[in-house]
Each structure stands twice: as C-alpha cells, then as structure tokens.
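Researcher: Here's the sequence for the chain we discussed earlier.
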Amino acid sequence: MKISLNWIADYTTLPAGLTPREIAHQLTMATVEVEGVHETDGDVVFEIDNKSLTNRPDLWGHYGVARELAAIYQVPLKPLPGAEPALPKASLVGYIDPAVCRRFTATRIENVTVLETPAWMKQRLVAIGQRSKNLYADLTNYVMLATGQPTHAFDANRLTLPLSVRRAHDKEAFHALDGTALTLTAADAVVADGKGPVGLAGVIGGMDSAIQAGTTRVLFEAANFDPLAIRRTAATHGIRTEASTRFEKSLSTHRIDEARRLFFHLLKDIDPGARVTGFDDTVNAATAPGEIRASAAYLRDRIGKDLSIAELRAPLERLGFGVDVDADQLTVTVPEWRHTGDVSGPHDLVEEIARLHGYERFEFQAPAIRLETSARDYSRSAERRVKEYLALGCGMQEVINYPWTEDRFVIAAGFSPDAANLRLSAPPAPDQATLRTSLVPGLLRAIESNIRWRSAFRIFESGSVFPSGQPTRLDDDRERLPPQQKHIAAALVGDEAESLFREAKGAIEALAQRAHVAPLTLAAGGSAPWADAGACLSIASGGLTIGHVGVLARRGTRAAGLKHAFAAVFEFALDGLRSSPSRDNKYVALPELPSVDVDVSLTYADNVAWADIAEAARGVDPLIAAIEFIDQYRGKGIPDGHRSITLRARLQPTSQTLTSEEAVAIANLIREVERQKFGASER
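Model: Thanks. This is the structure I predict for it:
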C-alpha cells in the first residue's frame, strides 16, 4: 500500500524538522514496515508492506495512518472532514443476506454532472498509483484511500431498484467493470437489482450499471461485507481489487458513516448542483467497542519495565482507547475500529503500550532465570535402553495393546477379572471392562493374532499395569488416580519349549550389560500365574523380586491358539531396575598393586547351583575381588549325579604385594568353605 505525506498533512501536523526517512523509520519501529520512500511531484510516498497490515484494517486508509503518526509523535489528530445532508427515507434496499453483508447503505443522488475530476484529486490518486477514470469513480476511490472503506457508485438510471445482496444463482452471468465475462457459482456473493447481478459484492462493480458521461442520477453504495465471503468470491474468479483486499481484513461497520460524510463533503464542493433524494440503511450486525480489564501489575510484568499508571494510560489514550483507572486496575474501552479481531485481550494492550513507549527504549537484560540441569528421569531412559536391546539385540517386534483385553485372555493367563480390579465404567465391550494387572493377557491376544500367519516369532510390549490398591488423591481433592506401574513383557513362540526357555533366560541374563542397569539374578522356586510350575524362575534386582521368566502354561497356549507350539514368556517391573554403577559416573582409582588369580577345581552334586558356589567363595576373604566361572566337566572320574567345576578367584591386595604363599592359603580356604557348605571334594 502507498501513503502520501501530503495527504497525511490534511489530518495531522507532524513536528517540524523531521525528514521523510525519519518518519518512515519511526513508523516502522512502532507500527508497520515502510519498505520504500519515494519523492514524486512535490510529494513523498511511503510504500508499506501489506503483510504488516494484515491484522490492522484501520490502517488501510490515510486517516488511520495519520492517527498512528499523531499518537507516535504526540500531536493532535484533526477530525475527518465530513458533511451530512438531509437524508429522505426511500425504499432503495431489499433483502440483505446476513451471511454475506453486515450493513448496506444506499444513497440516491440526482441532478449530477459527470465533470472533470479536480486536478488536486487526480494528482493525489496518481501519486499513489491510481488511474483517474471519471469524477464519481475517482470520488469513490479517493474516499476509500482516505478512510479505508470501499464504496461504489452506480448509474441509477440503469438499475431496477431495490438492490439486494444475495448468493448468485449457479451459472448466472455477470459482466465486470474490467470487461471480464464471468459465470458465477452458487457460492458467490453479488449485489443485484431486479434484473440480475450489478456487482460482485465487495470485489468489483458491473459494466451494465457503470457511470457514463451522460449519467444524471447516481446510487451511492457504502457497505460492509463478510470477509470470508469476499475472499472466497475473489479467489474463485481470480480477481483481487483494492476493495476486496480491504473487506478481507474485516472492517468496522461504523466506517461506512465516515466514508459517506467525506463523500458528501467532497461532492458539495465539486458538484454543488447534485442533491440527495433518498437514503436507505440495513444493519444486520454492527461493530461494537470492546472492553478489556487488566491490572497494572500484569502490564508491567509483561512489558518488562516499571511504568507508572500515567505511562501505561497515555499511549492507549493517544491511540483512541478509553481508559478508566481504579487503584491498580485498568478498564480499557477498545474503539470499534480496533475491535474487529485486532485488540481482544490484555496481551494486546501490552503490545500497544510497548510499541508507543518505544521498543528502542527498553534496556537489554539477560533473562532473569536460574539455569539448572533438568531432573533426570531414569525410568524413561532405562525403558528406552531396554526396548532398544529387545528390538535390536534380541530381534523382537514391539506390540502395543489397549490397557484392557478380553476376559478370556485374563483367565488364560491365570488372573481373575473380579471386582477387586479396576473396571471401566463404559467399556468397549462387556467382556473388556477390566484394566490389566499384567501385560501377559495382551501378549496372549497378540500371539493368537499372529500364530495363524507365522509359526515362530518374538514380540514384546512396554506399558502400564493397574494393580489393586488405593487410588492416589490429587492435591485439589477432586480426582483420584489409580495405582500404576510400568512393566515390560515378552513372548518367544516356537516349536521347542526348552530352547525357547533358554533363549528367554539368556535375554534376561544379558539385559543388564546391554541396557546399562544393575545385574539381574535368576533364582529357582519362582511362580507366576501364567507360567508352568516346573519351568519358572524369578527375576531379582538388588535382592528384590521384580518379575518372572518361564514357559507358558498349557491353559495359556490353548487360549492363544498354540496347538503344536510353545511360548516362553518373561515380565518384570521397569521401576524395579536399578541404575548400573557405570551409569553413575563415579570415579574409582585404578589398583596400585597387581592382582593375582588362583583356580580351584572341586566336584559338586548336580543340585548345587553355581550362584551359591560363587557367593560362598566370594565371602572367604576381603581380598577376593571377583569369582569367575571357568568350566564344567562330567565324565570319567566323576561320580554320577555330580560335576566338576573350576572357578577362578581374583585376589586384589590393597597395602602390599601378595605372595604366592598367601595366594595358596586363600585358595585352600576356599576349598575348605566349599567342602563344609556343599560337600565338595577334590577331583
């Protein structure tokens, strides 16, 4: 958009001594971006970036820009010139579609003469890139460029009144002022008379009702159209005009009165013989002022500067806002020209005050915040590492189930869908009301869905389970949250139960190293509702049982459709995993003295577990840093039901180098402890 400084001077007097570029810079800093400053025929024209005007429909005319400059430089704004002739009521307007038009005024003017447009008006229009056409076309363009309100003049002798605003009939013909023949659609908005469309509403007038050299009667239209309807019509036919650009921004309905009064003021001087013989006004929706309440503390906090009440109030009043102050509270009346979607809340007041105060007057300050490291959520990072290990290291596919499942899978997994568990008040199906207490029922459902396509596969799931217990009450005491735990479970499906069990057991044993968690231990004697009683181990971390690994019991395999296949399953609580010491990044000095390894070979009964053997050996002497399994032997020289195990003890001295005699003594002590506890014997 182009703005003439000579035109601005009609509405406000800026301080003397300002150069055009200084004015342009100040306007850019406070309001809209001035892209260029051009001198032409004794005038200076500002070229303003249209994108910066998108939310400021009040600035699409010279008077609106003058209002901004008057507020910026704190100088008076002159009233917009205007005249209001006698307006005899006449039936000039019929049906006005409220979905298309908010207000429509029509003024009949008779005894007009289509004179030559005055030179001063032509000069202003040409300076900002407009082409002079005829007196009444130039008058309506001038009014639009002054106030931002588009208007239109029809040749009243070529109309069949009353006018209406409606949707076009499908395939209705229209001949636009630019000579384009259009075929309209039912979505287009038109201004029509008794014969058909005489204007594409808010976009362009029609050729059949255009002002001509011999025109003696004019119908002057000033209306307010719905922005979406205008944008849709203009886009459909690829016609963008000065009028449609302004209507798309949502104008105030009161601007019609400013435009009409300015039009009559100009007409009185240019064509004094013309007289108004009729007026009609239909209002469907009027733009009203708005009201915003905000505390001074809120405004100061958001602005970032301790401004006084007077400093908060003055910029708003200069912009035409009404301000009432009661102690710390400001009640701001938003003028109708800014209440079209632009200023709607306290945050908008912050912007208005800050930009008029001057952004350049705000001192640079570093953010007044304390920089702290974020809290580390170990459970989330541990879950991610475990899932990556199962997917990448074990070749498993992740499945995601709902937190409920059919009761038949709950029962098949050895659980009871009774009233003690949490139940949905509006379940997706009557038999899917129980929230899960384990992930295994969902895995059974996934196995059933996949076994028909593949005979062997590996799947896992990570999700919340809802054990029985008292809900957690929130701080506000209005809601309660059920107990929740994060579990991880997996199922390995194939045709050999023993190999599946060993694979599942191996996955658990390697998990600690691969997922960077504290070591997990497996112990016999565990039991899980879904596991075969003879093939189930407990999973422990830090001495606490956190889950189980085992072969799926027959009732579970039947429910999952495993007629000739087996499944090994493990499930454990993610919250039970402990951080690996290596993840704590705690420095431990390297040993200063060399370590010594000693091997001990003893024969044990088959029912003696390696974990117990290692634990007993580790407690023999404080110098023993680690016990390592070397090998196992069955065969010649070993009684039936027995096996020979070789272990290696790593001895780490702390004060002096260990002698061979001291190392042998510790090895003999290990042999003695193993004989006493487990009945071990020399090979």
